[in-house]
Amino acid sequence: MTKIYDVIIIGGGPAGLAAAEAAYNNGAKDVLILERDQTLGGILNQCIHNGFGLHYFKEELSGPEYAGRFIELVNKTNVEVQTDTMVLDITPEREIHAVNGQKGYQILKSRSIVLCMGCRERTRGAISIPGTRPAGVFTAGAAQRYVNIEGYQVGKRVVILGSGDIGLIMARRMTLEGAKVLACVEVMPYSGGLTRNIVQCLHDFNIPLYLSHTVTKIEGEGRVERVTVQEVDANRNPIPGTEMIFDCDTLLLSVGLIPENELTRAAGIQIDRRTNGPVVYENMETSMPGVFAAGNVVHVHDLVDYVTAEAQKAGAAAAKYAIAGEPEPSRHITVKNGNAVTYTVPSCIRMENIDKSAEILFRVNRVCGASVIQVMSGETRIAGFKRERLAPGEMEKIILPRVLLDKAGEEITIAIEEA
Q1: What's the pLDDT tens digit per position in 211-270?
Q2: CA pair distance 182, 164, nearest whole angstrom
Q3: Residue 322 sits in the same domain as residue 344
Q4: Chain-centre distance of CA 115, in angstroms?
Q5: How many structural domains comprise the chain?
Q6: How many Å apart are CA 112 and CA 108, to the nearest integer?
Q7: Domain of 18?
Q8: What is the pTM of this model?
Q9: What is the CATH number of the domain that holds 44?
Q10: Do 321 and 346 share a domain, yes or no?
């Protein structure tokens, strides 16, 4: 007979590891992780800087150390692992088509599935920078892998486009490796990274940050020789006469991350256009019954600790589904984003799965000073949360008690009201 797993997790990075451990500890007996790389750990293996684990482990760890903690926890269970395995398809019957060198083509059956494929970087082609096509243009993550895992120095004179966390961290990393980082350039009027990374990776090394600027031309024969940087207006159009020329041999791109959702789309799972990840309910279940998702495949996180918490929720829910099946439906509450809010996760709350409270994660679309996070049901405010500052680079979290949700109508809206 074909073996039927309780839970299969696609992806063995921080989300996949946390989901597997949680699924096993919540009663799932047959759990399998499928990972396309040769080792577990995902992107954390190349993140050798510290700053991980402050929330979850209450201590500062490097990326490999954080991953190692969860690999040890998974190794203490009976969770199966298949590395070097590429998943090709997911069916509504929760069959997974996968292939690897040892077992060949496999059709694996599972009672529930957790999607933990992570995210990928936008490339030069996605943002259409004019100019020639020389060597020396890398995404920041690719450069990080070359330097930290492969042992290659990618350049000596570097310009970084984008101030996301990976770009900021690579500004410091390249400096420590002996390169000269000439500038970090950001098209928005604010940085897309965490404040601590701006301070520790740019200010501490006297690397200038040009806000409301972008790269408008790349030049070079064989290798990058120079890039042109211009100031942009409120519509992000370059302003003539503001050109700056940087003589460099390397351009790193940190211009955004996209949830890795080719499998999700191919399976027919509903995608949230705000996040480019799947639409999820309060327990991280997608629009396909029994298929859950967590981590950067849903929405891009700023801290791995939040990825872990979200994946543990998804793993526990997947185990519950495998054991008990889908609960009887009850009242649903749709969650919408209002003023200054880009998106919310989840998109819908099913009250049958809410015991004491529901957690809502979201990001703002601009920098806000002292503000109140308003939770509205129609014209009625059901909750308010004060914040001293809100920024797009830092994810926000609020917790709504069930007693408040019971008072809400069919929809609630999360909005920002500045003081």
Answers
A1: 999 999 999 999 999 999 999 999 999 999 999 999 999 999 999 899 999 999 999 999
A2: 17
A3: no
A4: 13
A5: 3
A6: 11
A7: 1-120+257-326
A8: 0.93
A9: 3.50.50.60
A10: no
